[in-house]
Amino acid sequence: MLPSDHPTIATGGVGVLLVNLGTPDAPTPDAVRRYLAEFLSDRRVVEIPPIAWKPILHGIILRTRPAKSAHAYAQVWTDKGSPLAAITAGQAEALQARLGDGVKVDWAMRYGNPSIPSKLQAMKDGGCERILVAPLYPQYSGATTASVMDSLSAALGEMRWQPAVRTLPPYYDDAAYIDALEEDLVAQVAALDFVPEVLLLSYHGMPERTLHLGDPYHCHCRKTSRLLLERLQHRLPGVRVETSFQSRFGRAKWLEPATETVLAAEAASGTRRLAIAAPGFSADCVETLEELAIRGREVFAEAGGERYAVLACLNDREPGMVMLETLVRRELGGW
Ligand SMILES: C=CC1=C(C)c2cc3[nH]c(cc4nc(cc5[nH]c(cc1n2)c(C)c5CCC(=O)O)C(CCC(=O)O)=C4C)c(C)c3C=C
Ligand SMILES: [Fe+2]
Ligand SMILES: [Fe+2]
């Protein structure tokens, strides 16, 4: 017999937790400082021994960067908050509608709020005994995918009664992803009021050293570009497709070519009409809406470019949601 004060326990449910990088709670220097302090203290992100990195982080970076970054965030902030959080929430809502009531869909951020541990516990408390954790990074990197796994393991380490967990593998070469990008990019290019000479595929950068240490990120990005190129050369004949890496951080050498170098070089060598897309980002964020759409535009124009368009990420629109539903249903198989 159960004691009469035994709590009611919800059981038997299946959950899907979408995870993205994280974003500040507000576009202010204080909120950005809190976010960057957590993000840039992750040894998966900055692989410099803490004894050398901490004085630089706390003595220089967290004193100077928050004001600059807050200005960038302020330019893209929406009435629903940070674009990255608002769009990720939209993806979770749209996926919930597609999967129906048999599965509980929620979302979390690796840094900032809502956190992975808080959402994992809430899903477990809500009866999810099986949870698929889906990092929304098509290309694997230690700084992103592995860091989500670290946070997940640490959260599980604090739980007495753990759910069973599965994780979504990187999907950089998955037909569902390439199909979605092909359909979406072709439609967005067709809707422009100019025909681009170049479509630049810009991925978030990483220190070049990570490639030599065995991180597959660079190879994953290159393979996504190659597979997309195979499709786009038929769908967008005459448009030259190039690849670059954006958002350099710090003094070390990063993956090349750098997006802003390519933008300037293209304009300088005569390209007048250019469209840019960021296939490695599942959702538009400060890196696409500010770095590419505002600063990238200036770089291209200053070097002589005339027409410039930033294509939207897959976000929570139809092609991206078809892809997410396909990937998630596959991973939920047997549950
Ligand atoms: C898509 C994959 C990403 C990789 C790989 C990545 C690596 C990486 N990033 C930094 C430093 C910063 N990134 C910042 C923002 C940011 N990064 C990603 C994704 C990847 N980062 C996203 C989706 C975002 C946007 C977040 C948002 O709130 O909109 C920032 C903050 C912004 C700024 O101050 O410039 C920093 C800093 C490093 C060092 C790194 C690899 C080692
Ligand atoms: Fe980043
Ligand atoms: Fe950036």
What does this molecule look like?
The mean pLDDT is 97. The chain folds into two domains: 13-171 and 321-331, Rossmann fold; 175-310, Rossmann fold (3-Layer(aba) Sandwich). The radius of gyration is 21 Å and the shape is globular. It has 335 residues and is an alpha/beta fold. The chain starts with 12 loop residues before the first strand and ends with a helix. Strands 2-1-3-4 form a four-stranded parallel β-sheet, with helices on both faces. The protein is built from eleven helices and eight strands. Residues 247, 287, 291 line the site of one fe (ii) ion. It holds the Pfam family Ferrochelatase. Pathway: Porphyrin-containing compound metabolism; protoheme biosynthesis; protoheme from protoporphyrin-IX: step 1/1. This is Ferrochelatase.
Distance between the termini: 31 Å
The number of domains? 2
Number of helices: 11
Under CATH, the topology of the largest domain can be stated as Rossmann fold
Bin the helical content: 40-55%
**What ligand species are in this complex?**
ligand L6N33NVT, fe (ii) ion
The total count of strands amounts to 8
SSE ordering: EHHHEHEHEHEHHEHEHEH
Pathway: Porphyrin-containing compound metabolism; protoheme biosynthesis; protoheme from protoporphyrin-IX: step 1/1
Keywords: Cytoplasm, Heme biosynthesis, Iron, Lyase, Metal-binding, Porphyrin biosynthesis
Subcellular location: Cytoplasm
Pfam family, one: Ferrochelatase
